[in-house]
Amino acid sequence: MAERETRDDLKPDPPCYSRACAIQDCLVKNDYQEDRCRKEIDALYDCCNTFYLQHGDDAKMVSCPKASLLRLKMKQRAKETRQQ
Q1: Rounded CA separation 39/13 (Å)
Q2: Which residues of the chain have pLDDT under 50?
Q3: What are the residues whose beta carbons fall under 8 Å from the beta carbon of 15, sequence distance 6 or more?
Q4: What is the DSSP-derived secondary structure letter of residue 3?
Q5: d(CA 14, CA 52)
Q6: Nearest Cα to 42, choosing from 83, 84, 1?
Q7: Residue 31 falls in which region: left (phi positive, over 0), alpha (psi -120 to 50) or beta
Q8: pLDDT of residue 8
Q9: What is the pLDDT of residue 2?
Q10: Residue 7: what pLDDT?
């Protein structure tokens, strides 16, 4: 995702909310098959990661998992992508 798009997603209150909503929309449209919403999930994780880099790992946001869980999920997804 482009850096500018990520910065724009940090502006609304709450930050990254539009990315979380995009995941829900995608899941509904695709009968809750997560593999079909990979792009939307990755976009949320990128947005959340940028948020934590700017505000610290102790920052809280309803749209994002805790920083430690986020990084674990990003690592797992990157590994899955390499294995495909």
Answers
A1: 22
A2: 1
A3: 9, 47, 51, 61, 63
A4: H
A5: 13
A6: 1
A7: left
A8: 65
A9: 53
A10: 64
Separation between Cα atoms, residue 18 and residue 66, nearest integer Å: 18
Residues in the chain: 84
Place of tokens 């495909």: 84
pTM metric for this prediction: 0.82
CA distances from 9 to 21, 37, 40, 63, 80 (A): 12, 18, 13, 11, 26
pLDDT of residue 12: 63
Q: What is the pLDDT of residue 81?
A: 79
Residue 54 corresponds to which tokens in the numbers above? 């700017």
> Which residue's structure tokens are 């590994």?
79
Q: Which residue is associated with the tokens 């829900």? A: 24
Would you state the pLDDT for residue 71? Answer: 96
**Both tokens assigned to 19:** 């990315």
What pLDDT does residue 5 have?
Answer: 63
Q: Are 22 and 42 in contact (CB under 8 A)?
A: no
The Cβ of residue 19 has, within 10 Å, a number of other Cβ atoms equal to 24
Q: Which amino acid belongs to residue 50?
A: T
